[in-house]
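Slide 14.
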Amino acid sequence: MNKMALMRSPSRTQLRLILIIMLGLAFITLVISNIGRRLFKETPAVLFSSSELSRFKETLAKWPNKPKAVIYFLVQGNPNSWAKFGKSLKLLDANFNGVYRYPVVVFHETGVTFQQMNDLRRETSSDVYFQLVVFNVPQFLTETPPNRTACSKHGVGYRHMCRFHAGTVYDQPVFNDLEFYWRLDDDSQILRPINYDVFSFMKIKNLWYGYILITHEPQQCVTGLWELTEDYLHSSKIQTPQSFYKWKKRNMFYNNFEISRVDIWKNDNYVRYFDHVDKSGGIYYHRWGDAVIKGLGVAMFVPTEKTHCFDDIKYKHGFWDVSMRSLPSCNINIPHRRTRH
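Slide 15: predicted structure.
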């Protein structure tokens, strides 16, 4: 009888217990695996960026009585670019932000070191927040982007930057609760004191988009973009493009200086348009730049009377000093000369 009992099949209770144990072990394995993957992804740079975002959210929670706005840069960690950025930030402090005290958000790739960040913080009076960005060629592209394009000698990295400024930057969490932003490049220079708050000016005047000048892109840098945009307008049945058909085909805002409402670029109209442009691959195959893409966005979705040219600000970027008389006009409907990059 004892032998018969030993050979007897497990009871239902025992089977349930075995099943519970097996499921428990599977769950524990899954949890450990996910934790491992998470820890692998959470490098010191990622963790630091996350802590900076938390600190930024705390700043927003205690925001004073002024427009919710930031000044943002996209920078590289190489010594030449970092030195230019340091000079740009010092001039910004001296001529605007030392008085008006808006947060400075620095988007950067992994090449920026903690030492560089710490040194910068010691040298600026601005409250700086660092945010890590990782650039990859989009998976939806059907062909490998060329190393060079007919437009320029710039490689794929430059086109990552174009895509970022044209649209993906607004997916960054720091933009979630903002009204305005001011974009500057790492070599932008504010050369004279600005004696008013540019964000309050935009808000009081109910302005949507502020710029420094208008120029245009070479034809080889906009191959197919105008036609794609016209087709998009027809297929999406947008009835009243604001000034699209007055906008010259190769026009663009010189948007290394750009003061804008955030919601222009988060609005469904622009989001859908940018997605259409993005999915076409033109940014990577032809080097369509962020300036010309966003210029078309403004022409389609921003009333002309909601734009403003900050021609009172003495500004320099690269070869161009905006105070020079020979530079293009601020007039939004006048054709202009080529920008030098």
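Speaker note: The CA atoms of residues 270 and 283 lie 16 Å apart.
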